[in-house]
Design a protein that fits this description.
The strands form 3 sheets. A 4-stranded mixed β-sheet has the order 1-5-8-11. A 4-stranded mixed β-sheet has the order 2-3-6-9, with no helix packed on it. A 3-stranded parallel β-sheet has the order 4-7-10, with no helix packed on it. Helix 1 crosses helix 2, helix 1 runs parallel beside helix 3 and helix 2 packs across helix 3. The chain has 7 helices and 11 strands.
């Protein structure tokens, strides 16, 4: 069995850090020991192979090809990662989604005919009439019907989900508003909510 010092000398030689007198000791040992000579030659081949590998270059499209062959990430995993990395946006998106679905649900279910209670109004089927010569003091809101003004409304006239607003010879002192779109409906309810605080 050869001393451990010979293996260390082999490494020093291959690292080009061996002193000349120790190199002479190594050469003499390798001439007399075939086993160490074989180990030394294998080490030299290994180092030459590794050095040769460092000069090799991968083809230019190597990375693209490897990534293309990887399995695609599932959408569920991608969504979970996005939600984890953007919690504020996820919460805001969920809030907007729930609000929109609630508003749409309320908009869709609000299909019954109704009218604000005011004196001097005539209701025939789904038509609300302000008779000629009559004055209605206050706002008139008609849902899912038609408003026909022949007299006067001293206030606002609003038709929600209604048929075309009809005004033949009538007069309205306030605002006249038709609400037939979801965004108009949302705006109408927001204005009414803000009017509560006035």
């Amino acid at each position: 069995m050869c001393p451990e010092q010979i293996i260390e000398l082999m490494h020093d030689y291959l690292d080009e850090e061996i002193e000349p007198d120790k190199e002479q000791v190594l050469r003499e040992h390798l001439q007399n020991c075939k086993e160490c000579e074989s180990i030394f030659n294998e080490l030299k081949k290994s180092i030459a192979f590794v050095k040769g590998m460092s000069r090799m270059q991968a083809p230019p499209d190597f990375t693209v090809n490897v990534l293309a062959r990887l399995p695609k990430e599932k959408k569920q995993v991608w969504m979970q990662r996005w939600l984890k990395n953007h919690p504020f946006l996820a919460a805001a998106s969920l809030f907007i989604l729930l609000m929109a679905s609630g508003i749409y649900s309320t908009w869709s279910q609000d299909q019954e005919f109704s009218v604000t209670k005011q004196k001097n109004l005539i209701v025939q089927n789904n038509t609300v009439i302000v008779p000629k010569g009559e004055v209605v003091k206050g706002n008139v809101v008609v849902r899912n019907g038609t408003l026909k003004i022949e007299g006067e409304i001293q206030g606002d006239a609003t038709v929600i989900h209604g048929e075309k607003y009809l005004a033949s010879a009538g007069h309205v002192t306030g605002d006249i508003e038709e609400v037939n779109e979801v965004f108009d409906w949302i705006w109408y309810h927001m204005k009414n909510a803000l009017n509560i605080f006035d």
